[in-house]
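Final report, results section. Input specification for complex C-07:
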Amino acid sequence: MKILRIIAMGLRGLLGKPLRTALSALGIVIGVASVVALTSLGNGIRDSVSGQITDLGPNIVTVSPGSESADGGGAIDAEMVSTLTPQDTRNVAALPSVKAASSNAATGAFVDGKGVQLSGVDPSYDEVRKVELASGRFVEGGGEIVLSHADAEKLFGGKPEGAVGKTLPVGGSARNVPEGLPPEQAQDSRQERPVREYEVVGVVASQPEGGLVQAASAVSYVTTADALELSGSETVGQILVAATGAGAVGEAKAGIASEIRAAHGGQEDFTVETQEELLSTFSQITDQLNVFLAGIAGISLLVGGIGIMNIMLVSVAERTREIGVRKALGATDGDVLLQFLFEAVLLATLGGLAGVALGVGSSVLLPVLISDLPAAAFATTQIALAFGVSALIGVLFGVVPAYRSARLAPVEALRRE
Amino acid sequence: MQSTKTREGTEGGAGRASRAVIEARDLTKVYGRGENTVEALAGVSLAVEAGEWVSLIGPSGSGKSTLMNLLGLLDRPTGGSYNLGGREVSGLRGGELSRARRDLVGFVFQSYNLLPGETALANVELPMVYADVGRKERRRRATEALERVGLSGRLKHKPTELSGGQMQRVAIARALVNGPSLLLADEPTGNLDSKTSEEIMSLFGELHDSGVTIMVVTHEAEVAERGDRTIEIRDGRIFGDEGRSPGRDVENGGRR
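Structure output:
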C-alpha cells in the first residue's frame, strides 16, 4: 500500500530529524502540560477549600451567640455578648437527636509565662469534632491540658512528644490575650488570676499548614470549667453539637433552638446553624474559584494553542522546499498532505501524551515541594479537553500550511529557501 | 551549423514521431493577471528525439528556466500543446500532472535538493515510494542506480557526509531510478569545481551513450558544448537551434 509506504517514510523522517521533531512536539507538550497542571492545581485548591468545610463534619450543628435577625448579617460576630452557658450545652446534649455536644469557650492564658490560645471544651468535644492527637489523650477533667502541636513545640523546645505527663503553670487574664502582643507586656497588664499547675495529657497532631482546619488545630484545649475560670467569664462562645445522623440534623436544629430558647426565657439571642448552611456561605467562594479556574484553563489553552500554531507554522515553512522536492519527484498533493497529516497527528498525539504526563507529574510534585499548596485534583474531562484541543490545533496548523505549500506549483515551492 | 527559427521548424520531425520524446508546439507562459502580465514564453515549438543530448542556453530572464519548468512538468503552460514520451501532458493538472512528472521526468538540480535527513539510498528510493514500488524492489533498483553513478560504497551516507560531486551523483541516480523519458538537469555543475564538473559531465556522457535523453540547462559554454545540440532562448523565443555543437564529431551528431 502506497499509504503505508508514505506513512513509514513520514515516521522515518520524524525519527531522522529528532531535534526538529522534539521542538515541534515541545510546543504541544508545554501547551498541554500547562493547562493540565494549572487546572489540576486549581481544582486541588477548590477541593481543599470545600473539603475543609465538609471536614468539620456533616452532622455538625453550631450554636452561636446573637440573633441572626439582629443585624441582618451573619451570626458570627466577635463583639456579640454571649448568653450561652455550660448549662445550655448540657441541656442540648440531653436531646434524643443529639449524639454529643460541647461548649467552646475560647480564652487566652499564660502557660509557663507564654501567651497561649486556649479552647475550653467538654470531654465530648472529641466526639463532635475529632481531634487528632500525636500522643496522649484528650482532656477528661479539670487541671488537664492538651497542647496544640505548635504550643508544645514552643513550650518544650521542639520536643512535643516529651510533653505528656509534664506539669505547667497556667494563669489566665481577665480578657483574651490579643494575638501578637508580646507576652511580657501582656503579662504586666493583664495577669490577674492565680496561677495553677496543669498536667499535659496530650499533644495535638500537627496539621498541614495553610488550611482552615489549621486555625482550629492551633489551639490548646482545657476543660470548659477551667477555661471559664481562667477567663473569669460565665458564658461560652459557642456550642458545637453532633446530631445522631445526617437525617437528624433538622430535628436536632429545631430541638436545640427550642431548648435554649426555653432556658433563655423565650429570647432568641442565639443562632443555630447546620453544616449545610455554613457550606452554602462558602459555596460562593468555590463558585468564584470555579469561574477563575475556567478562565485559567481557557487562557492556558489559548497560550498553548498559539505556541503550537507558531512552531507548526515555522516547521512547515521551513519545509516548503522539501515539499517542492517531493513534488518534483512525483509526489501528488495528496501524498504530501498524507505525510504531513500523519506527522502532525503523531507529533500532536505523542506531544499531547507527554504533556499530560508532564502536567500530571508537576501537579503531583508541586504540592510536595510547596507545602502551602494543596494536593492537585485531576479532572479527566479537563485533561481530555486540553489534549484534544491542543492536538487539534497541532494537526490543523501542521496540515493546513503544508497543504497550501503542496498546492503550489513545484517551481514555486522549490524557489523558497 | 544551420541556425533555424523553429516556431514552425519542427514540422520535419513529424515523420519520425515515434522517436520523438518531446514535441512541444507553440508553448506560451504568461505570469500575472490583468494589466501586470509578463509573457515569459512567447510561443516555443520544439522536438527532441530519444537519445538526444540537448543543451538549453540563454541569458537570465530569457525564458530559459520557464521553458525548462514547462518541459519538466514543474509548471503548466498558458497555451500550446506538449507531448512528452508519447503522452499529451499540456492539459494535465493536480495528481495526473504529478504522476506524469514522476513517470516521465528525472530532475537534477543545481543545489542537488536531496532530503538532508535521509541516506543516499533513501533519497534514491523516494521517487519509487511515490510510484508505489515495493520495498525490496525499491532497494534493488536504488542500489543499482547508485552503482551506476559510481557510489556503491556510499549507500548509507547522508548528504552531509558526501561531497558536492557525490551529492550530485545521488541526485542523478534519483533522477534515473524511475526510468524517465527525459533527464532534465538545471545547472547541474553550477555548485561544483571544474574537476568535479568534468566528472559529472563525463557521467552525463555515459548516460547519453546508454541512450538516456538528456536536457541540460546551463549558462556555461563548456557545459553546453558537451551536448550534441544547443537550443538558445532569447526573449521567450527560440533564438538559435544548432544541430551539433562545434568540436563534436559529425558522425556522432549524425543521428539527427
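Strands of chain B lie at 20-31, 38-49, 53-57, 79-84, 87-88, 105-108, 182-186, 214-217, 229-234, 237-242. Residues 71 and 203 of chain B are 22 Å apart (CA to CA). This concludes the modelling results for the funded period.
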